[in-house]
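user: Kindly work through both lines:
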Amino acid sequence: MHKLTGAGARLGQAADMERAARARSGWYARYLWAFAAGQLVLVPVAVLWHGPVSATVFGLANALLVTGLSVYAARQRVTPRGFGVKHGVMVGSWAAVFALTVTLGSTVFADSPAFAAVAAAGCALPLATGARLEQRRSS
């Protein structure tokens, strides 16, 4: 009988830990919102600017964004179950849209501000969708 009580207590502790992890997992939504916001600046730079100044600005801005987000993510104490797969799908979705954007923006829609605006929103969309879903899960 004592073992059941101990096992029951352990299950209760596990459930408490999972609730705490879910409550603290809002950090990933904030991460994705910041990444999505960065797309609104980085995509037009990648599509509209040309030459070494463009490459330098894009490289520095992208490095700052990725470094800042990586430091932020590394400092989090809690990651939700299945985080690696979820993050891989999220980044993979963004990468596919971004690659298509850069390809079309440098061939078919070269120097098109309208395309740059739509493409920026398109690159931010998978990240913003993931952030919204993560906010729902963590609340």
